[in-house]
Amino acid sequence: MVFCISVVHVQYIPDDDIATFLDTCKLNDLDKIDEFAQNLIFNGFGAGQLFAQLQEVILYSDFIKDAQKACIIERLAVADHRLMDGADEYFQMMDVGAVVMQALSAH
């Protein structure tokens, strides 16, 4: 009898990169979000880890209003579900980035 064990290595994304993602979203420039997403993937980080860390930062932020938080967290949940269903990480990062961009620009 042979057993196969799959090991998943989750790499922690530096806090500076999470802050850079939020700063990038504040620029209202999808091209910058695209560049960030590609660089994150190129450096071996996954969208799921980005979403997990981003969720924590958003929830505990004193600078983001509750309505903005709700909008962003809802999209993080949708994107995470899509990842579980096999969706492309890049497209989910872009989707979340666009929603964060829109939410942060709303007053």
Gyration radius, to the nearest Å? Answer: 15 Å
Give me the secondary-structure category: mainly alpha
Cα(first) to Cα(last) distance is: 61 Å
Number of strands: 0
User: Largest sheet, if any?
Assistant: none
Mean pLDDT: 91
Strand content: under 5%
Morphology: globular
The total count of helices amounts to 5
Helix share of residues? 55-70%
Which blocks of ≥5 consecutive residues have pLDDT under 50? none
Structure, described:
The chain is an all-alpha fold. The chain has helices spanning 15-26, 30-42, 47-59, 66-84, 89-105. The longest helix has 19 residues, at 66-84. It is globular. It starts with 14 loop residues before the first helix and ends with a helix.
Q: How would you concisely characterize the structure shown here?
A:
The longest helix has 19 residues. Helix content is 69%, strand content 0%.
Q: What features would you highlight for this structure?
A:
mainly alpha; single chain; 107 residues; globular
List the helices and strands and how they pair.
Layout: H1 15-26, H2 30-42, H3 47-59, H4 66-84, H5 89-105
Helix pairs in contact: 1-2, 1-5, 2-5, 3-4, 3-5, 4-5
